[in-house]
Amino acid sequence: MQELTHYINGQHVKGTSGRFADVFNPATGEVQAKCPLASVEEMDAAVAAAQAAQPAWAATNPQRRARVMMEFVRLLNRDMDKLAEALSREHGKTFPDAKGDIQRGLEVVEYCIGAPQMLKGEFTDGAGPGIDIYSMRQPLGVTAGITPFNFPAMIPMWMFAPALACGNAFILKPSERDPSVPLMLAELMEEAGLPKGILQVVNGDKVAVDAILDHEVIQSIGFVGSTPIAQYIYGRGCSNGKRVQCFGGAKNHMIIMPDADMDQAADALVGAGYGAAGERCMAISVAVPVGDETADRLIEKLVPRIEKLKVGPYTAGNDVDYGPVVTAEAKARILGLVETGIAQGAKLVVDGRDFKLQGYEDGFFVGPHLFDHVTPDMDIYTQEIFGPVLSTVRAGSYEEALKLAMDHEYGNGTAIFTRDGDAARDFAARINIGMVGINVPIPVPLAYHTFGGWKKSGFGDLNQHGPDSFKFYTRTKTVTARWPSGIKEGGEFNFKPMD
Ligand code: NAD
């Protein structure tokens, strides 16, 4: 059995707590590795190494730091297949989807190559006689991030790329379900020229997370995961005086207007609902056709597409549409919610409950499910299922559809499918959700824009990547300087306006 490590101060180190988590191959159900769960002392060792290394990294000019990012991009491309294989093996997502996970992170690293431009401060020449005012963006020091299982490459890179480009040290606590790719990324960053101790990976569970939350040296925390944990980390981190941004769960609605191209909408829904087995925070989990006739046409188009979906292991390459879910518990929870949906009166139009894959009977595969006639009081509507289950809620009008999405507690992503520009504009303007697609089912913004949900999907005031990330990972210092007359003529005792 492979025993995974932490990556502390440039070295793979074995866990010393005696506690481990099982890392599965979700396609076979086998335990393939043990992930060490850090103690407080192990976290302390990483923080000490980060604290010692960070000042020299911060003093390295931003262009040189950017060159490390540039080289890292080359290495990611060099090792793309190797990384994607490790990712699929632990997560279960298809091989092309694993490459997409790495690629979307890589694009954030590319954006961070622009750090010298992003870190330029502000300058006012001659704010008063002989007086200049300038603002600098300085790194925070030691920063940390806690990431979920579903994007083990992209989400760590969302965080550590801007943190490092800004001159911080970063401690990553990845998901204990798929920690191998984060460890590989840390190694690659050092191969790219990053000094030891600047990017470290400390594997663990709540013990490691709480050690981050309470460590007085750690200045900021980024979190992505489920909403209850996001809320916990935000509360405790903020009350400890840290800068915290937390992104949580989702229930993304797609509104289908009567004038939508129904084939296009159905194709989009199948990809966005079932891709990655529905384990994406930007997956569409609720279809909202406007009007019964639209709903009937949509269901008619959806059913054959869903029945044709190919579910299988990542080793089948391009021949599968989605793979297994991450654990047996995740599978049991999803199937439990399906039963609840039936019991509460929703109509199961496509039933994936009996799905079996020959040769992979112990894998965590879940067949695709489609519900119709779901109502807002049902558990399958209120809860994030995070599996290949799409719920259809029929709305009587556009206003009703809009209100439905607005009243849901989550506000990560949403989409509208229509040919009517006026409806699309109105929707984009009024909806209280962070990321909106117009005839685009998964509107994940590219690296140079920012990513973030509203309501219970996001806590904190700055988004991930894009310009916000350079704000999140720096502090502004503003200097007022007077040259050359100085104060040699004597002190001034009144607070004077600038002349
Ligand atoms: P999770 O909340 O179970 O775990 C996320 C991280 O928190 C992991 O590193 C885990 O070790 C840690 N953690 C778990 N329980 C903890 C506890 N009690 N105390 C402290 N730390 C704890 O989430 P997950 O299952 O890994 O990921 C799926 C969730 O993430 C879904 O809800 C999904 O919507 C969400 N997600 C959100 C976004 C977004 O940008 N909004 C992106 C991806 C995933």
Automatic annotation (TrEMBL):
EC main group: oxidoreductase
Annotated ranges, domain Aldehyde dehydrogenase: 13-479
Organism per entry: Roseovarius mucosus DSM 17069
Keyword line: NAD, Oxidoreductase
Designated name of the protein: methylmalonate-semialdehyde dehydrogenase (CoA acylating)
Pfam families reported for this sequence: Aldedh
Gene3D superfamilies: Aldehyde Dehydrogenase, Chain A, domain 1 (3.40.605.10), Aldehyde Dehydrogenase, Chain A, domain 2 (3.40.309.10)
Any one GO molecular-function label of the UniProt entry: methylmalonate-semialdehyde dehydrogenase (acylating, NAD) activity
Presence of keyword Oxidoreductase: yes
